[in-house]
Amino acid sequence: MSLFLRNLVFTIIQPGLVAGLAPYWILGSDLNKLAILPQLFHHYLGIVLVAIGLYVMLSCIIRFATDGRGTLSPADPTKKLVIKGLYRYSRNPMYAGVMLILIGESTYYMAIDLWIYSLIIFIAFYLFILLLEEPRLRRDFGDDYREYSHRVRRWL
Question: Which pLDDT tens digit goes with each residue over 69-79?
Fold first, then answer.
């Protein structure tokens, strides 16, 4: 399967489930509160946060494909260490982008269940990065990753 299609599939499966389908299930009937035209400040703020998060996430996915020659999925990881673009400022901008989407959705709907879900997802991301992803990157990219991790912060 082409790199483009693999990235599309993994984008739908991973961030699509985390930031799309799961919030949809959590919100349930609250989705009726979706304003066609934003009416309140939190609607505007939520839309801006989701838009920024989508931009960050998609730019990282593109960077993974073009520079890393792989996908966002641990099942089909990059072949090269990606350190350009947003990765110059954060080792985990894609996770930050997904979190911005979730925070934007939580802000838009002002739904406590979605805020709790967002916190749980952040904790899961943090533990996954710390316990699985960073050890794999150290193993796969050795000194290049160690040097990169000393220069660039984990988050912001």
Answer: 988 888 888 99
pLDDT tens digits, 138-147 = 999 999 999 9
Q: Distance (Å, rounded) from C-alpha 130 to C-alpha 67? A: 23
DSSP for 87-138, written as a single string: GGT-S-HHHHHHHHHHHHHHHHHT-HHHHHHHHHHHHHHHHHIIIIIHHHHH
| pLDDT tens column, 118-127 | 999 999 999 9
Return d(Cα 44, Cα 103) in angstroms, integer: 13
The crossing angle, in degrees rounded to 10, of helices 93-109 and 3-16 is 40
How far is it, in rounded angstroms, from Cα 103 to Cα 97?
A: 10
Please answer whether residues 18 and 95 qualify as being in contact, where contact means their C-beta atoms are separated by less than 8 angstroms: no
Q: What is the pTM of this model?
A: 0.90
